[in-house]
Design a protein that fits this description.
single chain; alpha/beta; 8-stranded parallel β-barrel; 16% strand; globular; binds 1,3-dihydroxyacetonephosphate
């Protein structure tokens, strides 16, 4: 399976900055990207069209959105629909990122609704899961991942396995490793990813073949080691994806 290297730019970059980074990324990718990599970029909403102009349509490169509202249109002030995102060139969405769970207070049931809705609308979904430090230290890692996977996937188990394999990715991002410079150790990554695969194996008709990405303080210096670990099918990168050079080094790791 190709390793998936995804950039989450979060709330960074105006349109000109996003375009400049995308252009630098495109020329770096043209200079040579390993054939066994799929690259995804999740810019802020207003930069999606710019980034898509530069990167959309390149083989093995996908553009997505960091959020959306699960309704077709209507009275949802401040929200954005999948049709609007598709019009700007996005074909994937992030769901359940820790900042949506913990800062914006999105619940497991709302995230399940979003996951199901996006897949029904032919969007790909990166469903993010992960425990806080307090949950880990109180021995609740397994409970938290079980709840996030079971509830997050509750609406999609009736969908065809081939659709899920093509359009659904899980990202394990321990909350304590996000933006802290504190990458999870080898032992923690191996343990969590094995658990996630085991839990996926118990969902529907065995979803253990879904890709599972690691996220949390990924840097060019640790990317290769992380990609070499069992059950790590790719990386979801925040801070180190903002600079094209650094993200290219991760893609090429
Ligand atoms: P950092 O790579 O900045 O820790 O962020 C990880 C993340 O949240 C990606 O979605």
């Amino acid at each position: 399976m190709k390793k998936i290297i995804a950039a989450n730019w979060k709330m960074n970059k105006n349109r000109a900055q996003a375009r400049a980074t995308a252009e630098e990324l495109a020329s770096g990718l043209s200079a040579g990207k390993p054939a066994d990599r799929t690259v995804m970029v999740f810019p802020p909403f207003l930069a999606i069209a710019e980034v898509n102009t530069v990167l959309g349509g390149r083989a093995g490169t996908l553009v997505g959105a960091q959020n959306f509202y699960p309704a077709e249109s209507g009275a949802y002030t401040g929200e954005i629909s999948l049709a609007m995102l598709a019009d700007a060139g996005a074909s994937w969405v992030l769901v359940g990122h820790s900042e949506r769970r913990h800062v914006l207070h999105e619940s497991d049931s709302f995230l399940a609704q979003k996951t199901q809705y996006a897949l029904r609308q032919q969007f790909g979904v990166v469903l993010c899961i992960g425990e806080t430090l307090e949950e880990r230290e109180s021995g609740r890692l397994s409970d938290v991942l079980t709840r996030q996977i079971e509830q997050g996937l509750s609406g999609v188990l009736g969908m065809s396995k081939s659709l899920l394999q093509e359009k659904l990715i899980i990202a394990y991002e321990p909350v304590w490793a996000i933006g802290t410079g504190k990458v999870a150790g080898e032992k923690e990554v191996l343990e969590a990813h094995a658990l996630v695969k085991e839990l996926l194996g118990k969902q529907g008709d065995d979803l253990s073949s879904l890709p599972v990405l690691y996220g949390g303080s990924v840097k060019p210096a640790n990317a290769q080691a992380l990609l070499g670990l069992a059950n790590v099918d790719g990386l979801l990168v925040g801070g180190a994806s903002l600079e094209a050079k650094s993200f290219l080094n991760i893609i090429n790791a």
